[in-house]
UniProtKB/TrEMBL annotation:
GO MF: oxidoreductase activity, acting on the CH-OH group of donors, NAD or NADP as acceptor
Gene3D superfamilies on file: NAD(P)-binding Rossmann-like Domain (3.40.50.720)
PANTHER family on file: 3-OXOACYL-[ACYL-CARRIER-PROTEIN] REDUCTASE, SHORT-CHAIN DEHYDROGENASES/REDUCTASES FAMILY MEMBER
Name by which UniProt lists this protein: SDR family mycofactocin-dependent oxidoreductase
Keywords: NAD, Oxidoreductase
Pfam families reported in the protein's UniProt record: adh_short_C2 (PF13561)
Taxonomic lineage from the root: Bacteria, Bacillati, Actinomycetota, Actinomycetes, Geodermatophilales
InterPro entries (UniProt xref): NAD(P)-bd_dom_sf, SDR_fam, SDR_subfam_1
Protein family (similarity comment): Belongs to the short-chain dehydrogenases/reductases (SDR) family.
Natural source organism: Trujillonella endophytica
Length: 288
């Protein structure tokens, strides 16, 4: 542990698994204590399984194994009061707040007769309102010179990608939310600049998590197969990036979260930073 975040406290939403768990572990490796929040329950429109209390307990175990403190709370990012209570509990125990990683996200992918307007509502409520709620709950406690890091999406930045009709209303909600976060980050960075609090967004490409690896997404890529498996879709995943890889790992995103959380990025704010292996540049001309 080199201690780049020694004495800091980080709030992470969607922390039970995937990118959120990776962020919690990576920041803890550098000395941060963690407030870990996750819904640990299913959202009806989202057909692939979301996190469980056992997942959140595993995040706690991994952070504590690094000899860092962690406060875990089950909370729905769509409900500001729940987030406020979680943040207040974490701050009371850990003594402050310096970093926010607003990471929680979903992408419902119901299609055809199963699709519903609530798919759009749920996606935008989690992916946009959830970020806004996390930031709102954090600001009263966030110390000067802090950092807010928002999870966007390279696919969300590209018209015709996640908002392709094949993804249904949930894909449209996901894309609209992720694109709207771009202007949200830019405006919030101005509001918080007098306190030297940075606000930036990270836009990943495919990440090796449950949002990528699930039956619903596989079927979108291979509608000709009744139950496609990874080998059936992997070539399409590789084709998405300019670099010949199917996805990046959660730690590849966490390493950028760490940089943006540390004093090394003290004057970087209002930025949209892609970790996308060249995917946006490869496809922007085709679908932008």
């Amino acid at each position: 542990m080199s201690g780049r975040l020694e004495g800091k406290v980080a709030l992470i939403t969607g922390a039970a698994r995937g990118q959120g768990r990776s962020h919690a572990v990576r920041l803890a490796e550098e000395g941060a204590d963690i407030i870990a929040v996750d819904i640990c329950a299913q959202i009806e429109s989202n057909l692939y399984p979301l996190s469980t209390p056992e997942d959140l307990a595993e995040t706690q175990r991994l952070v504590e194994a690094l000899d860092r403190r962690i406060v875990t709370r089950q909370a729905d990012v769509r409900e500001r009061a729940q987030l406020r209570e979680a943040v207040e509990a974490g701050v009371a125990e850990l003594g402050g707040l310096d970093i926010v990683a607003a990471n929680a996200g979903i992408m419902p992918m119901r299609q055809g007769e199963d699709a519903d307007a609530m798919d759009f509502v749920d996606a935008s409520d989690v992916d946009l309102l959830g970020v806004m709620n996390a930031v709102a709950a954090a600001i009263p406690h966030l110390r000067d010179h802090g950092s807010i890091i928002v999870t966007g999406s390279t696919a969300g930045m590209l018209k015709g990608a996640a908002d392709n009709p094949a993804f249904g209303p949930g894909g449209a909600g996901y894309s609209w939310a992720k694109r709207t976060l771009i202007s949200y980050v830019e405006q919030m960075c101005l509001a918080l600049a007098p306190r030297f609090i940075r606000v930036n967004a990270i836009h990943p490409t495919n990440v090796n998590t449950h949002l990528l690896h699930n039956d619903e997404l596989y079927r979108v890529f291979r509608p000709d197969l009744e139950k496609p498996e990874l080998d059936d879709v992997k070539a399409a995943f590789v084709a998405w990036q300019a670099m010949p890889i199917p996805w990046v790992e959660p730690v590849d995103i966490s390493n950028l979260v760490l940089f943006l959380a540390s004093a090394e990025s003290r004057y970087i704010t209002g930025q949209q930073i892609r970790v996308d292996a060249g995917s946006l540049i490869k496809h922007a001309g085709a679908v932008g």
